[in-house]
Amino acid sequence: MVLSTKLAGLGHAAFLFMTTARDRVSYIYPNVNAAGAGLLLSQSFPADSMNLSDAGYNMYHQMVDWLGRPFRSVPRHEVGPLRVSISRKLKEVVAEKYRNAGVEKGKYIVIHGIESDSKASMQSRGDTDCLLPIQVWAEIAEDIRGFKPLFVIPHEKERENVEEEVGDDANIVFITTPGQLAALINDSAGVIATNTAAIQLATAREKPSIGLFCSEEKGKLFVPNAEEKKCAVVSSKTGKLIDIDVEAVKQAMQIFQQSLALV
């Protein structure tokens, strides 16, 4: 079986067809660009829009429903929530990175979502207003108690900017892949992030998190049932992330103190 979450036209569908997999499943364009694609796929799902991420957390609901369908003697079953496995080698590589940054396992809070003009931006596809300048992050990090803030940068050129705002003793780590980010979060005490992959990975690794969103609607869209996921959602009142209430973020940090009390 081959599953593709890329919107397929005739070209992408032909590529999937050439894999010779028994089941070739993909989303297809919601317009004329999908012409002929469905003929080469075992199962196709017309996208609701040109950007699947517009649907937030449930962006792949059609494919998830199809995967859980009854088949032969196997009854319908629910597809489980996102879980991320991390290899021992990857854990060792990441552990060396965060130790070099000056923090210890279980004693740091991951800070993710720093604004950057780098091509390696952390921006989410479904949310163009999802990053904050380091000046705001520095203000938020000042109130972290009991743990060290660990700033994740998308590119080494951002290191100087973080040190300039936070200080030369800032704990900074350059992470290059989603797998490394998952391993970093796995060894952390929790996460403070904007609407980036870090929030979903924190949920997958069952870590407490604070999610910062440009609006209440966006927060509900990307983190439904937030309380069950140990995620405190803080939303901007103006619809612009830059106007996020820093004091509200600081109050939400109680979620990490609860975690500390359980250690």
Automatic annotation (TrEMBL):
This protein's superkingdom? Eukaryota
> Gene3D superfamilies, from UniProt?
Glycogen Phosphorylase B
* GO CC annotations, alphabetized: chloroplast; NAD(P)H dehydrogenase complex (plastoquinone)
One of its GO biological process terms is: photosynthetic electron transport in photosystem I
> What InterPro entries has UniProt attached to this entry?
PNSB1
From the Swiss-Prot or TrEMBL record, give the protein name: Uncharacterized protein
Q: Which organism is it from?
A: Gossypium barbadense (Sea Island cotton)
